[in-house]
Amino acid sequence: MEKQDFIQFEKFLVGDLTKDELSIFNKRLRSDAQFKQAFEIYKDISDHLTHEITNERPISDFKANLDVISSQYFNAIYDEDINSIASSKSHSYKFMIALCVIIFIVFLVFNLVVKS
Amino acid sequence: MRENKLHEDQKYIDGLANNNTTVIKEIYVKFSSRVIQYINQNNGDAYHAQDVIQETIIAIYNQAKQQKLHLTCPFETYFFYLCKRKWLNRLKENVDVVKIMDENELNTDNTAKVLSVETSVYEQNHALYNEVFQHLDDACKEILRATFSTKPKVEVAKSLKINYADAVNQKVLCIGELTQLVQNAPKFNLQFY
Q1: From the list B19, B58, B129, which residue is nearest A45 (CB)?
Q2: Do A80 and A36 share a domain, yes or no?
Q3: ipTM of the complex
Q4: What pLDDT, in 10s, does the model give residues B40-77?
Q5: Touching check for B23 and chain A: CB below 8 Å?
Q6: Diameter of chain B by CA atoms?
Q7: Closest-CA residue in chain B for A10?
Q8: Which among B110, B101, B47, B102 has a CA at the least distance from the CA of B78?
Q9: Alpha-carbon span A70 to A24, nearest angstrom
Q10: B176 CB near a chain A CB, below 8 Å?
Q11: Are residues A3 and B176, on separate chains, in Cβ contact within 8 Å?
Q12: CA angle B6-B11-B13, nearest 5°?
């Protein structure tokens, strides 16, 4: 694209084209695929820059807020995972202790039976 | 598709655009578990899910803020499809992925599929715009930042030390340069143009 094409894009977007210029512009949009593609990208970039630059503060506020909410939500999940692992470990310990007690009692009973 | 009636779940899109904390929390509580489960079942974990969900919400926010997002399907399907697509794209970068579970029901909701593809393309193109912006020289970056700001024309001209008409002319050429950089970028996605 030529420099003049970009000037035409801008004029079109701000409504600065005369009636004749507008008619030629629209005709070219319909007949020249490359021109149309460049215009669509030019327009999309202009929208993007408008959004990014004029909303710099709201975007950064949104990301900060999202960070907090995401961390709160996922930390609860990670804590839950850790608790369930800890809880299953604690259950294993309890099971082992109970098993030891049973073995000890069986051993005592067995000794008593043998002695008697 | 644009002629379709807005879905009542547009409230989530509007809530995101307005940085509404209650709505964002609701999205996490209502719609995240399905995404976490899917990523867990497909070579990922909760940490991956946290990133994917956060990036997806930012993409929706940006698109919504530009008023380019009109939801015509349930938010849950759209959101899940978007997260899934993002995760699968990330997995594709990894060659050692063996098996991916698919959820067939998603393929039946064509509107959600189309909307989520649009958001993905929007996100990719905007990431590309940010990337090519970094290739501009400092003078162009300064002109674009100044002319796209909400400052009055006099202040813009004063900050750039040129008259406003010249600033606008240079702005046009800088956007033109960005346009050409985008067209020549290998990542450029033609889908939207």
Answers
A1: B129
A2: no
A3: 0.86
A4: 999 999 999 999 999 999 999 999 998 779 999 999 99
A5: no
A6: 61
A7: B172
A8: B110
A9: 51
A10: yes
A11: yes
A12: 85
**Domain B1-110 falls under CATH 3.90.1530:** no
Using CA atoms, how far apart are residues B19 and B7, in angstroms rounded to an integer?
A: 20
pLDDT in tens, A7-33: 999 999 999 999 999 999 999 999 999
Same domain, A38 and A1: yes
**Per-residue pLDDT tens over the stretch A80-113:** 777 676 666 666 667 788 888 888 888 888 888 8
3-state secondary structure B148-190: CCCCCHHHHHHHHCCCHHHHHHHHHHHHHHHHHHHHHCCCCCH
Domain match, A50 and A75 both: no
Measured between CA atoms, how close is B108 to chain A, in angstroms?
30
For an interface test with B, the pick among A62, A67, A77 (most B C-beta atoms closer than 10 Å) comes out as A62
Is some CB atom of chain A closer than 8 A to the CB atom of B124? no
